[in-house]
Amino acid sequence: MTIILAIETSTELASAALLADDRYLVRELSGTQTHSQGILPAIQSLLAEAGIVLKQCDAIAFGCGPGAFTGIRTACGIVQGLAVGADLPVIPVTSLEAMALGAYQQTGCAQIACILDARMNEIYWAQYHLTDDACQVICPPALTAISLVTLQAVDPLTLAVGNGVLLPPELSAFTVTPCMPHAREIAQAGMRAFRNGAVFSPEQAQPMYLRNKIALTTAEREQARLSA
């Protein structure tokens, strides 16, 4: 039996999951202030419910971003510490791929474009083609203004849209599925990667950052207000 532990803390909804072949156990945390304090107890709760210890897992999958800077950093630090202590490999999974998997399972649509709020009037986005066995990247994760999103023309196409995203008129014609990155799909992608041998050492648990700047200046905020 293959066991994957997964965590996802890149947005306001933090989650942990344990996937043992086809059986899921899940914990969720709400509120970004609780991520660093709450994720380890959530993991301990999952392991206790499953009746196993960490060393019995085969790998730890984690949401490596893009997303909130603090949340991604939290995930990498926790995963590195757990993986080193238990001598386990790690599996990074992008938060947008997790969204795509979730939307695919909800809708059955193979073509998924994911849009996640990046604040500062920008979004993270990517486009994927999914099957039951694979997730192909059509447009890799990028940071941009939502008006500059350039989707590959496919039909049908579903938009997986995270909290706080307002779609412009040019995207309103697509089918929209509300979706957030979740450890359940991180675990699923991690299981697939593990079976394909795509695992890494703990020191390779690194975040995916698409921006260096994490806040607007006062002048930039005022300019955005005047332009609204």
Automatic annotation (TrEMBL):
Record has Transferase as a keyword: yes
SUPFAM superfamilies registered for this protein in UniProt: Actin-like ATPase domain (SSF53067)
Keyword annotations from UniProtKB, A to Z: Transferase
Cellular component terms (Gene Ontology): cytosol
Domain of life: Bacteria
InterPro entries assigned: ATPase_NBD, Gcp-like_dom, T6A_TsaB
Transferase found in the keyword field: yes
Sequence ranges assigned to domain Gcp-like in this UniProt record: 33-146
One Pfam family this sequence matches: TsaD
GO BP of this protein: tRNA threonylcarbamoyladenosine modification
Name of the protein this chain belongs to: tRNA (Adenosine(37)-N6)-threonylcarbamoyltransferase complex dimerization subunit type 1 TsaB
Lineage: Bacteria, Pseudomonadati, Pseudomonadota, Betaproteobacteria, Burkholderiales
